[in-house]
Write a structure and sequence with these properties.
The protein has 118 residues and is an all-alpha fold. The chain has one domain. 58% of the residues lie in helices and 0% in strands. Helix 1 runs antiparallel to helix 2 and helix 3 runs antiparallel to helix 4. The N terminus is likely disordered. It is a multi-pass membrane protein.
């Protein structure tokens, strides 16, 4: 069964691309490279025209949760602040694992490399 309306416009969502990229850049070191790669991978999947709408809605939920200042565990609580965000991101990545190609993961790795000093 498909419970999503046929006329959903994913572009009219509350996802703020610029805000997402800025928050990822600002917090990449605190999140760690594996989580930053997962986040960027979800971002790339979201932007891909091949990603089904239902998957995009799931990704959108995770990305908006990451952006939201209202969390189960507030982000300002230091290392513990991103625990809930990481759980949501990891869960969505696991659910969409079949859609994450090696090429997509390499693209995400290359993109987040700039956030981590060598």
């Amino acid at each position: 069964m498909n419970f999503l309306p046929k006329n959903v416009n994913i572009r009219q969502s509350r996802f703020n691309e610029r805000g997402f990229l800025a928050k990822l850049a600002k917090n990449a070191l605190r999140l760690g490279k594996p989580v930053a790669v997962q986040l960027y991978t979800l971002y790339l999947l979201f932007k891909s025209p091949e990603t089904p709408l239902q998957s995009k809605m799931l990704i959108l939920g995770a990305l908006v949760y990451f952006l939201s200042p209202i969390d189960l565990i507030p982000d300002f609580l230091g290392p513990f602040g991103f625990t809930d965000d990481i759980a949501v991101i990891t869960m969505v990545c696991r659910q969409l694992q079949a859609a994450i190609t090696p090429a997509l993961k390499e693209q995400a790795l290359a993109a987040v490399a700039r956030f981590f000093p060598k």
